[in-house]
Amino acid sequence: MAGRNQPEHFKDFDRPPRPSEGKGTMETSYAKLHLDPELNHSSGYFTSDTHSLEQAQRAKTDAILSHCRIEPSMKVLDVGCGWGATARAATQRYGAHCIGITLDEGQLAYARQRDAETGGPRIDFRLSSWEEFSEPVDRIVCVNAFENFEDKRGFLPHCRTLLPVGGVMVMLTVTAERRMFRVTSKDEIVEFAQKAGFDVCTSGSLADDYARTLELFVQNLNDNRSTLLSLVSERRLDWHLNYYSKSAEYLRSGLNDMFEFTFTAL
Questions:
Q1: By C-alpha distance, which of 34, 30, 55, 32 is closest to 44?
Q2: Which of 34, 38, 154, 256 is the most exposed place for a label (fewest CB within 10 A)?
Q3: What is the rounded distance in angstroms from the CA atom of residue 136 to the CA atom of residue 130?
C-alpha cells in the first residue's frame, strides 16, 4: 500500500490501469518499444556522460555481476529476473549455472525463448516467488525487484538460508528515508541484512543514474507513442509516462534514493 504521506499526484500509482485498459503487467511487445535491447526494466549505470541507455544497462549488469564475485560453474539465483538479461550475462560471461525466477508468464516465455536461441548453456527460468524457492545457491542477484516485495523483513533472512558462509548477494534497490509506497530506508535494509547474518557493503547514491534511466524511458515512450497506442490504451501509456516522470523527479529531489548493496554471508 502507498504511504499516508504520499503526494497527491502519486495517489493512484499503486493501482495500475484496470485489465480493460491494459494489463497491469508489462507485455514484451510494449517493453521492446521503450527499454534497451536486453529489456532491463531497471536502472542503468551512467559511467560516462555520453552513455546511451543500452550502454548504461550493460555497465550496470557488468558492475553487479563483478561485485557478486561469480566463478565458473557457480549456481546463481536471479530474483525477479524479468526478461532474463542478468541471468543471460552471468551465464555467457561468467560460466555460471543460473536460475531466474519471475512472477510474470510473458517474461518467462520470452526469457526461455531467448535462452533456447543462444545455443549455449541453458538457463533454468521458472515461474516462482522468492518465498517458494528453497534450493542452495552460491550467489544471488536482485535488481530493482526488492521495492515490489511485500515481505521486506523476510526476504534477506530467506536469502541467507540459501547461501553458504562466504556466499555473496548483490541487491540494487530504491530507498526512502520516510515511508512512501512500498519503499523502505537504507538503514532498515542494512539492519535487516545484519540481523539475517550478512556483512553489508553499500554503494554511494545512484539516484541520478536511475533518474536518467527513467527519463530515457519517457523519451522512448514519447518517440514511439503512435505505435504503443496500437498495443495499449492511452490511459495505460499516460500512466507509465507520469509514473516514470514523477519517479525521476523524486530521485532528483532527494525524496527517494537508490543504492547497490553487497551482502556477504557470515
A1: 55
A2: 154
A3: 13
Q: Are 72 and 95 in contact (CB under 8 A)?
A: yes
For Cα atoms 248, 184, 22, give the angle at the middle one, nearest 5 degrees: 55
Residue 189 has which C-alpha cell?
535494509
Lookup: cell for 123: 538457463
Residue 159: strand, helix, or coil = helix
Indicate the SS3 state at residue 98.
strand
Report the relative pairing of strands 75-79 and 139-143 from DSSP bridges. parallel
> How far is residue 252's CA from residue 27's CA, in Å, rounded to a whole number?
28
Summarised one tens digit per residue, pLDDT across range 190-238 is 999 999 999 999 999 999 999 999 999 999 999 999 999 999 999 999 9
Q: What stretch of H or E contains 261?
A: strand 257-265
Q: Answer left, alpha or beta for residue 178, where phi above 0 means left and psi between -120 and 50 means alpha.
A: beta
Bridge partners of residue 201, in order along the sequence: 262
Structure pTM? 0.91
